[in-house]
Specification:
Elements lengths: L1 H5 L20 H9 L3 E5 L10 H6 L7 E5 L5 H11 L4 H6 L2 H11 L3 E4 L6 H18 L3 H9 L1
Length: 154
């Protein structure tokens, strides 16, 4: 919330979405947010793709989404328990499609133009630092996504 407030006046007048850990968005909410956005940010626990029905995502068209930032792959005891219980009911192939590289390919096929995502598990603190760097460079300074990713890699 602090980061959203800090950058509220910079290109974020029309931000909408779900904030907090009170509830998980419904499939209809995910679809509405994805199809109506020019940029999409996910900042949460475990795998983003584990929260969206992949067969519905594969059938979607998301050509208006120029940038998707996925800061996921954070694990806690509670999230690990939840994801493990969810994964029991999935095939190995389904779980494989939820991995970062495969998710990026699937999102590209739906029309998302640029994707910035974690490749391995991280901490909430590290993701908080990443989002601060991303917003500072993309929104305040006006760097391109490529320049910003290069800064993140350092």
């Amino acid at each position: 919330k602090e980061i959203l407030e800090k950058y509220h006046d910079l290109f974020t007048l029309q931000w909408e979405g779900v904030i907090g850990n009170i509830r998980v968005p419904s499939q209809a909410e995910w679809e509405q947010l994805l199809t109506n956005c020019s940029a999409f940010l996910f900042y949460g626990m475990e795998r983003l793709m584990s929260q969206i029905l992949l067969n519905r995502l594969a059938a979607m068209s998301i050509p208006k989404c120029h940038l998707m930032i996925i800061l996921d792959l954070v694990r806690s005891k509670q999230s690990y328990r939840r994801i493990t219980n969810s994964d029991i009911h999935k095939s190995c192939l389904h779980i494989a499609i939820e991995r970062p590289k495969e998710a990026a390919m699937l999102l590209s096929l739906t029309g998302v133009r640029s994707i910035i995502a974690n490749q391995w598990y991280t901490t909430l603190q590290e993701n908080a630092e990443r989002i601060e760097i991303l917003f500072e460079n993309l929104l305040s300074i006006g760097r391109t996504t490529g320049q910003t990713v290069h800064i993140l890699q350092k």
